[in-house]
Design goal:
seven-stranded antiparallel β-sheet, globular, single chain, about 400 residues, about 30% helix, six-stranded antiparallel β-sheet, alpha+beta, Penicillin V Acylase, Chain A
């Protein structure tokens, strides 16, 4: 599942998102340059092709390895978007919708075609009404389908767009902060369309109460880093047999009904020239937020898949992340102070993205070696340990 939040500070707009997906569904950062396209050209999205725009913007995307669209992204005009899976009565009634655009496709299409947050919402609405939304939303669980909500921001403000099939509702963000999770919130649209059972299973209202409070209090990127690392009221994952570690927005897999993992995280500072901070790795609590920019591609090595490959940025970090998960309460204090010092120094004086990724890799390797040498016991419940063993086996890890 996911959480996205925006803060309207006195100095401008801050945006943040955790992307929660299948635990082995690696994400990658993808830089796509602006381009002109021939009249009558089509663009092949994840499941269907649609008419291409004559010109598309440069975009930076956090993209699940197997799809065309993206979970989080920004464009050259300073527009940022995060999407959320939402469960609606139309899906609960078993209405099988034909393959169409995924919410992640709509997110990328909006970034490629819009210059403002309002234009991005208009693009999504127009494409939604014309082509619909539908199709498998998971590579490892092909039957998973959902509808989508979006939080769209630029330097001047933010909007929430919620959908159910081809129906939709919008809300301009007012006040100090706003967040969205895996449930509809705009009334009366929400009451008419939400599936309360599936919303309860993924604990969306509980997580949203925490992210909205964090959005209202945030004054800078560090506050949003902390918000995305929030494990819930106990300060650590509290494992549920139903949904694993869904007590806070830093989600760790382990439920028998819902078992998502925060597989990528992003914070955007739009208070001046857009500055983006992305992990490009799973688990914000074990990751470092690195500075990235839409117009500055970084060579990050081979593209990851759902199979373990230590040559990739995402899977190399999993050695640290999955080791720390055995006992987060004991593991995180061994490196979190250095993680935080590094991020504070980079916020004060951002290094080149390539240098930040190289330094992050060095730190994570050292932290991994330290945890291995510590031989901390695995304190997770038995069902969580068994699930992660299965995840590792499926990934060939």
């Amino acid at each position: 599942m996911c959480d996205t939040l925006v803060s309207l500070t006195d100095d401008g707009i801050l945006f943040a998102k955790n992307s929660d997906r299948d635990p082995n569904e690696a994400q990658r950062l993808v830089w796509v340059p602006a381009a002109d396209h021939a009249p009558g050209a089509d663009v092949a999205c994840t499941w269907i092709s649609i008419p291409q725009a004559r010109r598309t913007n440069a975009v930076l995307l956090s993209q699940p390895w197997w799809m065309w669209g993206a979970e989080i992204g920004a464009n050259e005009h300073g527009v940022v978007i995060g999407n959320e899976a939402v469960f609606t009565r139309k899906l609960a009634l078993g209405r099988r919708e034909p393959d169409a655009l995924l919410g992640m496709d709509l997110l990328r299409l909006a970034l490629e075609r819009a210059a403002t947050a309002a234009e991005a919402v208009a693009v999504i609405v127009e494409l939604l009404e014309r082509h619909g939304q539908g199709g498998s939303c998971s590579h490892d669980h092909p039957k998973l389908r959902y509808h989508n909500s979006f939080l769209v921001a630029d330097a001047h403000g933010a909007l929430v767009l919620e959908t159910a099939g081809r129906s939709w509702a919008t809300e301009e963000v007012r006040g100090r902060g706003r967040s969205i999770s895996n449930g509809l919130t705009i009334e009366p649209f929400a009451s008419a369309n939400r599936d309360p059972v599936r919303g309860a299973v993924v604990a969306c209202a509980h997580r949203r109460s925490r992210t909205e409070a964090a959005a209202e209090a945030a004054v800078g990127p560090l506050d949003l880093f902390a918000a995305l690392r929030d494990h819930g009221p106990e300060g650590r994952p509290t494992w549920s047999r139903v949904h694993g570690g869904f007590a806070g927005p830093c989600v760790h897999a382990g439920g028998t009904v819902a078992s998502s993992q925060s597989t990528a995280s992003w914070v955007a500072d739009l208070r001046g020239p857009a500055q983006h901070w992305a992990t490009a790795t799973s688990g914000p609590c074990t990751s470092i937020f690195k500075p990235v920019a839409v117009d500055q591609p970084v060579e990050l090595g081979p593209a990851p898949t759902n199979r373990h490959d230590a040559a990739t940025t995402w899977w190399r970090h999993e050695d640290l992340h999955r080791l720390a998960l055995r006992d987060l309460l004991a593991s995180l204090p061994r490196f979190s102070a250095e993680r935080d010092r590094t991020e504070r120094a980079w916020l004060a004086d951002p290094p080149a993205s390539a240098d930040a990724f190289a330094r992050s890799a060095e730190l994570e390797q050292r932290w991994t070696l330290d945890l291995r040498a510590a031989h901390l016991p695995d304190r997770r419940p038995g069902w969580v340990r068994r699930q992660w063993q299965e995840f590792d086996e499926e990934a060939g890890r």
